Every structure is written in structure tokens, then in C-alpha cells.
Description:
The protein has 3 domains: 174 residues, 2-Layer Sandwich (Cytochrome Bc1 Complex, Chain A, domain 1); 200 residues, 2-Layer Sandwich (Cytochrome Bc1 Complex, Chain A, domain 1), CATH 3.30.830; 203 residues, Lipoprotein localisation LolA/LolB/LppX (outer membrane lipoprotein receptor (LolB), chain A, Clam), CATH 2.50.20. The strands form 3 sheets. A 13-stranded antiparallel β-sheet has the order 18-17-16-15-14-13-25-24-23-22-21-20-19, with helices on one face. It has a 6-stranded mixed β-sheet with strand order 1-2-6-3-5-4, with helices on both faces. A 6-stranded mixed β-sheet has the order 9-10-8-11-7-12, sandwiched between helices. The protein is α+β, with helices and mostly antiparallel strands. The protein is globular and about 85 Å long. The protein contains 20 helices and 25 strands.
Amino acid sequence: MIIEACLTLNQLIPEIMKKLIIYLFVVLLVQTSWAQVDRSTYPPAGPAREIKLGDAHSFTLPNGLKVFVVENRKLPRVAFSLVLDRDPIMEGDKAGMSGMVGEMLTGGTKNRSKDQLDEEVDFIGASLSASSTSIFGSALKKHQEKVLELMTDVLYNPTFPQEELDKLKKQAISGLAASKDDPNAISSRLASALNFGRNHPYGEIETEATIGNITVEDIKAYYNTYFKPNIAYLAIVGDINSREAEALVKKYFSKWEKGNVPTHQYAMPKLPEKNMVALVDRSASVQSVVEVTYPMEMSLSHPDYIATRLLNYILGGGSSSRLFMNLREKRGFTYGAYSSIGADKLVATFSAEASVKQVATDSAINEFIFEIRNLRDKGVDATELENAKATLSGSFGRSLESPSTIANFAINTERYKLPKDFYATYLQRLNALTVDDINAAAKKYLKPDNMYITVVGNGAVIEKSLAAFGEVSKFNNMGNPEVLVAMDANVTVDQVIDSYLKAIGGEASARSIKTSRIESVAEIQGTKLNFVMAYDESNQAYANKVMVMGNVAMNTVIKNGKGTMTQMGQPSKDLNDQELDAMKMSMFIIPELHYEDMGYTLELDGIKDVEGDQAYKVIVKNPTGNSQVNYYSVSTGLKVKSENGEAGETYLSDYQEVEGVKFPMTMTIKSPMLPVPMAAKVEKLELNKPISEEEFK
């Protein structure tokens, strides 16, 4: 150790002397120049330089395929990106079809089944994927011809197997079901419907019906129509030179036959004449998803493109933006508030959004409008602009570290008819913009009086306050106008409850049930869940046990006026008064029999659509303010849905009679805590049999 220390010291002495000499030189230099430099202010920024991007080598095959090659020797890999430049298309009653094209392309070829294709890709450690407008492949340099062989096999010889389409349709319908309960997905659908309308490709929505209409012939027709080389661009990036790339492209893509591709034009969507408020009433929401939005013209080739990037960054482009600092840092309404100004050759949108506290919904909207109006009318200051320039310049610079960026720049220049120096002079043009330029853009593009104000939240709590911003129009979770069904003014909430009790077998039969034990089973992403619920109304005892793979994951018990909860083997936790009061809403076999005794208040809130069934909406509140919403079918009287902020939504179906009383045998639960909807099916239901004390421990 001593010898090692001495060696280290001897090695350091020359290094120390060298650093000392450098230090003394720097001190001398500073001392001789101190009087000549004013260090009280920051030096002015130098002019932005023209960026030397490095040209992408390009050529075009006789069939019209445009190719761009970017040589990069950092890694022994090569990537091939094929992109189709088609106009957006209307899918009509086949909406959702284009989203399946990519998976169908890679679902098997004339030469390989899907499994064989996947196996060959994996064997060489490659990547291969496709979409309705692209095919991508990448591999090690030594496997570049193999990945091109696989890529072009997918391009030329897809078989579009029916079993693959069946699987994709099933997945799409499952995803659609989950999205109907996702507030952000609901908000996105609503904004698209309002901004573009249903007769525009950006405003179409998928439904179970449109997905069901999609056939293999539709996929083939799309493929035969749009997969043509004369609307395609191929970017090649990696360990390859232009001569080698050109030889490979000619070998693998020359036989691709060109053809006529239809073009499409659409009317430019218009701004609303005045602010319009659109509400999706989602009683289970504990927050409100707020978005203010409108359509606008903006594209890469637009002269104001860069100005709108800076404008948006100042308004809501990051954690130092005006919206973020106001709604989160100052007001505490949300975890984050952001805005965006899109760019699209067809039509773009302005959008500002946040998920906010329910009680602050109207206040948050007010602040959104204030910040947009304030920026339009009073403009930006020099400091904000310089900070925005610095951030966007840095982001642009970092993007240049990726070789694929250069290829994308080359393709964009060709696709969007940009000036040849569009990207080379990007920073120069960005830094040349002045406060006056950004303020002019703000006055031109910010429309605080012509916006769609969309809200997904609990209408019973927030609807009245939204009227301050304009007439409130209601929409369903698919973004369609809510169909208002006229309700007989003479119908009362008591009559709705009476109809329900009559529908399940009559009040007398319902009251005769004193005990019940229900065993249900569900499966979520391959995991089996068992539920056991026990009710002893005479002793006002209730237990709800959830088991996973035979182990108790959670057990909730109410007995003797007290409640406890045990989770994953942890010690029991006593429920506080508020938790206990909330749980009491579920402790009765048929809660409707006990609402009056428990001091609950009921409010009839019109007729709503529940999965195509018209149902009375009844808001149930307990004395401490906890609430849930029940929906009773107008036609059958049966309860078809129940929801609250904690549990989410529960759909009740498959009613069957047991000892003279009808019970729902399937309960489908949609909750933000679940990745997909969960269907719990009753396997065993016992009535009026002794309940063991063990159930309530």
C-alpha cells in the first residue's frame, strides 16, 4: 500500500505543477484584462450560425420511390424507414380500419407465417414493424440484406389472414370499451368532434359497429390503393454509404410497381362564433378534465410556423410557462397545465388543457381564458422571449444528435415543399424573431372569444358554474350530442324506486331477505379474482372479501357500528367516520329498501343513455355528503348502472330470479384503478341461510 501511495504521489507531482502554471497564467490574464471588461452585465448573445447538417444523399427510382441516405458509422447498424405520403381519408362505417393495416401487413406473407416472420426477425436481433403509412426495419450491418428481404416480403406478399383480423377487432373493441371510461380519451374524442366535425377524417370515431364492419377485403383494398412507390419515401440511416445503399434499393425496391393514388380535399373547419361550452357528465369523476380548443391553419411551410412555436412555449409549453405557473404554482388547481399549437398541412388545432380539482373547474377555465386573452392583448416581454428561444434552440440542437433527424429533415423538405435551407437556417430565423413578431402572432392566432370549452366531469357538481362561460351543451362519452329524452314531469324519484322494487319481484319479497352470501369470480389480464360478500341485515353486519390465487388480498367488515379493513396481510385498520359512512351505502342486500331509514336524500336528474338503454339518473347522498349515482332502466325498471368517484362505474346485467327476487348475475366494473374493464360473474348466491361469525372476522 505504501509503495502504491508513493507511486501515485510521484505521478501526481508533474500534473500538479502543470495545473499550477495554468492557474497562474489565467490569474495574470484576468488581472491584465479586468479594467477592460464590464462584468456587471451579461455579454450579448452572438448571432445564430447557419447549421451544417450534412446533406442526405438522395435519388429517385424509375417507379417514383424517393430515397434519402444518411451515413453514420457510430454503430454497426442500418435502419430503413419507408413512409407513404397520402392524403387523410374518410373511413365512414369502417372507422378504425387503417389502424389495423400495419398489424395485418406483418400478420404473415405468402412465404412466411406470422410466427415464422417473427422468429426470423428475432433470430437476427432485428426490428420490423408497419402501420397504414409506413414500414420500418433495422438490423446489424451484417444482416442488412436479411432485414430488407423480410421487409420487402411484407411489402409485396402480405396474406392478410382472417384470424389476425379477428384478433385485432377483438382487441380494438376491448380498447374502445376501456376508453369510454377514460376521461382523457373522452375529452380527446369530444375535442376532435367539435373542431373537425364527423364529416372530416380527423373527426371520425371508432365504434363497436364500425370495427365490426371491417373485413379482410377492406384491408386488401386499402393496401392495393395506397401502397405505391410514387407516393413513398425511403430513409436509410446508419453504417452504409450512398453507393452501397443505391445498389440495395435497386435490388429490393425496383420491382415495386407504381400506380394512381386518389387524392382528397376537405373544407377548412371554422371557428365557433363565440365560446361554446361542451360537457360530458361523468358522475364517477373526482376531477374535471378541462380543454379549450379550436381549429386553425398552421403547417411547417407556413411563414408563422416558428413564431407559433415560441408563442406556445411562453403560454403553455413547459413548467415555466404562464399556464403552468398560474394554475399549478399560484392557484394549486392541478398538477400541470399545458398548451399546444399543432402543425399539419390539412388543419391544425390550438389546445390548452389540465385535469383540475372538481371544485375549481370554473375557476380553472377562467384562468385559461385570462392567460390566453392577456397574452393576446398585452403580449410578451423580452425576457420571456429570450428564455423561449434558448429552450427551443437547445431542443433543436439535441435533436441533431440523432442521425435519423437528418433523414427526416430531408423527407420533410421534399414532402412539404420547404425551402432547401429550411432546417439549416432554422436557428437563425428563430433568433431573429422579435417581441413585436411574437405579439403580432399572438393577436393573429389566440382566440379567447372563439373557443370550444370542453369539460369531462361530474355534471351535478359543476354544470351550473359552467353556464358563466356560455350555454352548456351536453355530449356523451363518444363525443356525440346527448340525446335528451323528455321525462314525464309527473315522475318522481319515489316512483322510480318503487318501479325498481316491483321489477325485481316486489317490495314484500325483497324485504323477506335477511341474509345473503354471494360468491363471484372475475379475471383481469390472466389473473383470477374471487369475491365473497356476506350480508346479515338483522345484525347490520357486512363483509366483502377479495381473494387472489386463493390468498385474501383485501377484507372489509362492518359490524356493531364499526368498520375495519385488512389489506395484503397487514394489520386491520379501523375505518374513520367518513369512510364508514361511505361504506354503509353498500352494506345492504337491496340498498333501496333502506335509503329512507338511513336518512339518505334522493334526487331525480333526468333520463340518461346507458349503453343504449334510457335510464333514470338518481343521485343518492348520505347525511355526511358521500354520494353515488344509480341508473334505473325506463323500460324495465331494473338498476343498470351505479357509479361513484372512488369505485368508478359498475354495470349490472343478466338479472336472474332467486327465490322470487331478481339479482344481477354479472357486474362489469370500470375504474381508473383497473387497466381494463372487469366482469365479475356470480357463481353462487344463497339467501336466508345462517351466516357464520367467521365471515365477519
